[in-house]
Amino acid sequence: MAAQKVAVEEEIAASEWDYRSAGDLIAALRKRRVSALELTDDAIARIEALDSRINAAPVRDFERARAAARAADAALARGETGALLGVPVTVKESFNIAGLPTCWGDPRFKHFTPKEDALAVSRLKKAGAVILGKTNVSQWLSDWQSYNSVYGTTNNPFDPCRTPGGSSGGSAAALAAGFCALSLGSDMGGSMREPAHYCGIYAHKPTEGLVPRRGHAHPGTAPLPVEHDLAVVGPMARGAADLALALDVIAGPDEMSAGVGYRLALPPPRHDRLNDFRVLIVNAHPLGPTSRVVSDALARLAERLAKTGASVSDKRALAPDLAQAMRLHARLLSAYWGAGLPFANYKKLYRDAAAFSPRDRSIAAERARGAVLSFREWRDADAERAQLRQKWREFFHDFDVVLCPAAPTTAFLHDHSTPLEARRVKIDGKLYSYLDAHTIWAAPATIAGLPATVAPIDHDGSGLPIGAQIIGPFLDDRTTIEFATLLERDFGGFTPPAMRSGRRSCAK
Question: In three state form, how does the secondary structure of 269-314 look?
Answer without folding.
Answer: CCCCCHHHCEEEECCCECCECCCHHHHHHHHHHHHHHHHHCCEEEC
